[in-house]
Amino acid sequence: MGTYVLRRLIQAVPLLLGISIASFAILKAIPGGPLAAYENDPNVTDADIRRLEHELGLDQPVPLQYASWLGKFVVGDWGYSVVSHQPVLRLIGERLPNTVLLMGTVFLVVVLLTIPIGTLTAVRQYSIFDHVTTGTTFAFLSMPTFWLGLLLIIAFGLDLRWLPLGGMRAPGAAGVDLIDSARHLVLPVATIALVQLGSRVRYLRASMLETISQDFMRTARAKGLAERVVVLRHALKNASIPLVTVLALDLPELFAGALVTEQIFGWPGMGRLFWDSATRFDYPVLMGILAVTSTLIVLANLFADVLYGYLDPRIRYG
Q: What CATH topology corresponds to 88-311?
């Protein structure tokens, strides 16, 4: 196992290098740039723009710009925002805890709901519970995130006035109020979790239906094991592999954030930082976020592969 993990980590280096090259090239190919806002400003001359380009290194060839960025990035110098002039690491560090709080709560809620719902819909196939649950989850799955978020804001924030409309805490609040923070979490967490829940439940339900019809399940029942033991200890463990794949790929979202949801609810996380940076052509911040996200995706895939071996002893790594 250790050799396999080490080999995968070594293979990830050229992969991440290729991703960074592609990301940098795509960002540079987008029309506009961080100085586009000054081009139509009568108070800014061409000489001023040329001077700013030189100070930001934008007048160099793209390969040299990438080489300069990569050389600094690998030693921990992620550069400075061309908009706010703050260190990229500081900007990401300020937003990252907020995103981990939001997406970590979403991840926990989705897992805690998916396992019992997916298992029950498979065990009670074609029952009223199965039909109602499947229809409801499909309905939420088909809803655009921004539309569902707005519906929840209108229903629970404007009409009923049960929950705050957005943000992380009440305006002017001093210190940390756990109850207030929890109330601000409800709507964004519900928006993301309800959309994700449908696909996760379907993955587990389909895998459970296939597993409970296998011969080893009949053997377990023939040995006199209780049905709950057969389902939870034998069926669920073997049926979890597809779900593990999906959930492992969800892990990078804990750090990358939810772009649409954070915009709707004014949540100051990584997704909102990415959107603000993209609209302002803030290349250093965008590259920092993309580098972190791509690294996490590669590690999440490796984590899923390792977890397969635990869930299914038949899987061996060379």
A: MetI-like fold (1.10.3720)
